[in-house]
Amino acid sequence: MITIEYRIIQAFAEELKENGIKFTMDDLARRLGISKRTLYEHFSSKADILDALIEDAFAEVDKKNELILQNDDIPVTEKIKEVIISLPTHIELVDRPTLEQIKRSFPEQWEKLSKIYTKDWDEMDALIEQGIREGIIANKNAALIVKMIRGAVETAQDQQFYIVNDISLTEALSQIADIILYGLVSKEE
């Protein structure tokens, strides 16, 4: 059963995607077909809804990553690739213009997003170290490899690039992972 809170979070994400952060609680209530009073009974502000959206989106990513990391049937290189391409369902949370709006209008939520984007690289570091120990990944500086992966993943914030070049974000991240893991040189060479 879908709760009203879930519906509000989803409608908030849709408003964010379509209109940026500038929409009002009136706009959100209208989208939902509920009164503003009903909206305020569940969330006291846009910041509270944004907090819930962030929590919901990245809890989902954490759950996906946990399943990937715990699955012993997946080779380490595939685990690395799957972790690289696991993004929140609410893709607006990785869109540069939206992030800039959040940074200006909701500094507390921006701080949470910033921490999320910078904190969870310990898992990747462990996967890289495991790959090096197992001889699957070249014995290079693991911290540097993780920094390169992190930088490549951060390009996901440039949604316009993907639109102009007709490539989905998931497809782009998959290709980034392949290039990092397997290189640029054709196997035929």
From TrEMBL:
Superkingdom as given in the UniProt entry: Bacteria
HTH tetR-type domain: residues covered: 2-61
One Pfam assignment: TetR_N
InterPro entries: DNA-bd_HTH_TetR-type_CS, Homeodomain-like_sf, HTH-type_Tx_Regulator, HTH_TetR, Tet_transcr_reg_TetR-rel_C_sf
Cited Gene3D superfamilies: Homeodomain-like, Tetracycline Repressor, domain 2
UniProtKB keywords: DNA-binding, Repressor
PROSITE patterns, per the entry: HTH_TETR_1 (PS01081), HTH_TETR_2 (PS50977)
Portion annotated as DNA-binding: 24-43
Name by which UniProt lists this protein: TetR/AcrR family transcriptional regulator
Organism in which the protein naturally occurs: Oceanobacillus jeddahense
Organism ancestry: Bacteria, Bacillati, Bacillota, Bacilli, Bacillales
